[in-house]
């Protein structure tokens, strides 16, 4: 599987959270994240993006067994608020952008 990245610029509309969430959902499912965990990521991304005032830029990258996501919107206040919403995914703020990754769970033989 080759790496692929989706990039979106979402205008300030009531649907930007839903659009961003479903794009991220597709990417995390593509790397093998189970449905319930993928839906939790979707919900967190939807809440974070919907809380942004103004336009949002999002990228989602599919790698081998892992998805990486970057979201840019608003300023420091939004970054703080979105970091709390996405805290389960250990987000990092890099150059004014909120980034996190989620991987496919490793299965172990017993």
Q: Can you walk me through this structure?
A:
- The chain has helices at 16-30, 35-50, 76-85; strands at residues 4-10, 56-63, 66-72, 92-94, 97-103.
- With 110 residues, it is an alpha+beta fold.
- It has a five-stranded antiparallel β-sheet, with helices on one face.
Features:
alpha+beta, five-stranded antiparallel β-sheet, 37% helix
Please tally the helical runs, counting DSSP H or I stretches of 4 or more residues.
Answer: 3
Which structural class do you get from the secondary structure elements?
Answer: alpha+beta
Tell me, briefly, the overall form: globular
Give me the Rg, rounded. 14 Å
Helices and strands, in order, run as: EHHEEHEE
Termini separation comes to 28 Å
- The main sheet orders its strands as 1-2-3-5-4
Strand content: 25-35%
DSSP, total strands:
5
The major pleated sheet works out as: 5 strands, antiparallel
Low-confidence stretches: none
The helix fraction, in percent, is 25-40%
Q: What's the overall average pLDDT, rounded? A: 92
Task: Describe the secondary-structure layout.
Blueprint: E1 4-10, H1 16-30, H2 35-50, E2 56-63, E3 66-72, H3 76-85, E4 92-94, E5 97-103
Antiparallel strand pairs: 1-2, 2-3, 3-5, 4-5
Helix pairs in contact: 1-2, 2-3
């Amino acid at each position: 599987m080759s790496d692929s990245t989706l990039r979106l610029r979402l205008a300030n509309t009531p649907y930007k959270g839903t659009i961003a969430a479903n794009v991220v959902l597709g990417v995390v499912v593509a790397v093998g994240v189970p449905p319930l965990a993928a839906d939790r990521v979707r919900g967190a991304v939807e809440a974070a993006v919907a809380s942004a005032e103004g336009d949002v830029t999002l990228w989602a990258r599919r790698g081998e067994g892992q998805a990486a996501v970057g979201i840019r919107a608003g300023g420091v206040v939004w970054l703080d608020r979105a970091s709390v919403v996405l805290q389960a995914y250990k987000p990092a703020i890099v150059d004014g952008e909120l980034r996190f990754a989620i991987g496919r769970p490793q299965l172990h033989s017993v």
